[in-house]
Input
Amino acid sequence: MRTPNASLLALPLALAACGGPDPIAPIDGEPPAAACRFDGVQASPVVGASPVHRATPVELQWAGAIDAIDIEVRADGAPVKGEVLLGATSAVFVPHALYPVDSRVEWRATACGDVHEGWFGVGALAHPLVDVGALVGGAPFEVDLRAAHLEAPSPNDPLAEVLLRFHLAPAFLVTFAHVEEGQATVLLAPAFVADDGSVRQDMSRPMAIAKVPLEGNPYLFLPRTDLELALGTGAATLRGADLVLGLDAARLEDGRLVAELDLREVAFTDGEEPCDVVARLSDDACRPCADGVPSCVPLVMHDIVGVSSSHGLDVPPLGGGHLP
Output
């Protein structure tokens, strides 16, 4: 058996020790290419955001370096055509046309063999946020919920929906008191509907204040709070109210409200008990509130609008609202 030459075995080591070529060194001094990496992805709108306007782009940011990205977008399952603008660590998908009203938009981004997905919901508004600053000091918006669409309590029939809205839908006023550094200070005043159909401020009940972030989306999300509003000859409390208002140039559009309506202090002029009205006209019934009193029903409304009021808004009384 022939023994290998030891000097030949040692030759590569000797070359390396004497400064010979390193098999993994970059050629001509060029740095090695960065490994493709597509992680730490952040999306705007955030996953699950709803509603946003119908021209909303999909914006992605990530950590790492990629050489290409594929972004697929669908609205209610149908492909959406658009253009992708690619930066070093960001990409923007801009749709060529408006998404359908009230559609679910899903996106899927693929790079470096990794996939990230998300979705958001669009409303009826087709434009970004208007200049809210121009509304500061202007007339308040009248919001009469009797003109909105009632989803819950679930009406028995179309006529029952009209009657439920007449009995259960309160009114309020909304105004913008201040705008600064991407935030708007919004005042929400309890109100009543006068004989002439106008919405007037109810000075006997406290006004709510909220600071709302402005991020280009025309839908303003008011912080969850309890609102005491006039109803019948008494008062109803919207508990844990989630209120979204769509801001157009001259009015409020496409608003949504989800709350628990506490009817314990409500009285109707015909003497019928509020919970009996709910049972007679809907598929729902009063259920226990958080304190156990069986006087609460779900209140879900959409298509809320607000028109400019011809009546001013008196700032006091304040309190009872939410100020983050």
